[in-house]
Design brief:
- By secondary structure, this protein is an alpha/beta fold.
- Helices cover 26% and strands 26% of the residues.
- The chain contains ten helices and 17 strands.
- The strands form three sheets. It has a ten-stranded mixed β-sheet, with helices on both faces.
- Strand 1 and strand 2 form a beta hairpin.
- The two termini are 30 Å apart.
Length: 348
Amino acid sequence: MTINEKYIARCIELAKKGSGNVSPNPMVGCVIVHNQKIVGEGFHEKYGEAHAEVNAINAVKNQELLKKSTLYVSLEPCAHHGLTPPCADLIIKKQIPKVVIGAVDPFMKVAGKGIEKMKNAGIEVEVGTLEKECRELNKRFFTFFEKQRPFVILKWAQTQDRFIDIDRKSNKYGEPTWITGHKALVKVHEMRAAEDAILVGTHTAEKDNPSLTVRHCPGKNPVRIVLDRQLRLPKTLKLFDNSTDTLVFNSLKTKTEKNTHFIKIDFSENSIQQVLTELKNCNIQSLIVEGGQQLLTSFIRKGLWDEAHIYTGNKFFQSGVSAPKIYGTLLYEEKIDNDLLHVFINPR
């Protein structure tokens, strides 16, 4: 590992501390090095507050050292006025002579402008150290701006014989059929807390009556989303308790009632793409799809997914609703008590 890689790796480590608190901003870490010693470090801690570069610069006790230091940062410093002033301007003002950057910011108001501004000020700038790792750190952010849609995670639990549910008739609607254990449930809730939104279809909402909130770990609730074309779902469902923001995609109306927002789309066209476009317009950068077989398969067929988290429990149903068929590249697998998690990525 080179010196630059060593310090950018530390930037990535710091950046992860902002997970769950900075969206829709990216996670960013920054270290300032003088004579091969870190004299200041920081990360973007909360959306709307100081960026990583500001926190790292403020952490340097002797500010005169900045004029003889190198600033390392996992993502290009911003060059525009948002909720905070441009970090590139602060770096120039502090006369930091060299900046090493992991990845270029894909946001069009930055996208190379921070680099250009610093170079024009006479700062030596290096770009691309551990670029792959820096992009992976903010894969949601990069997908959002490069593909103009949220990062999509498909999630389901299946039995050993690849069923996601038993056959349930209307008089048996209510509690879902549990396939995996408690530790797997906690992990699912941790994922909910880390992502912006979660989506189910009409049948899942009706059969399972899910809350789609975070209850088994600390963290914020994701925005809840349901497809209800004809608005036939009863308002007694937990999804309509107004406890957290909920979007209802339908074919009849656009209206807001407390924390429930009805959004009209054309279901005769590509409804999945319309939903993703609306979510992009709402600044939602990541989406968990927890729907049933039909909804999950719709995303798979259109190739509109980035990761699939498949939990396999130690049960057999013999018959029922078959698990979706998916073809992806295995990223990793994890044993969770008696259950097994496989995470696939879309190779496209």
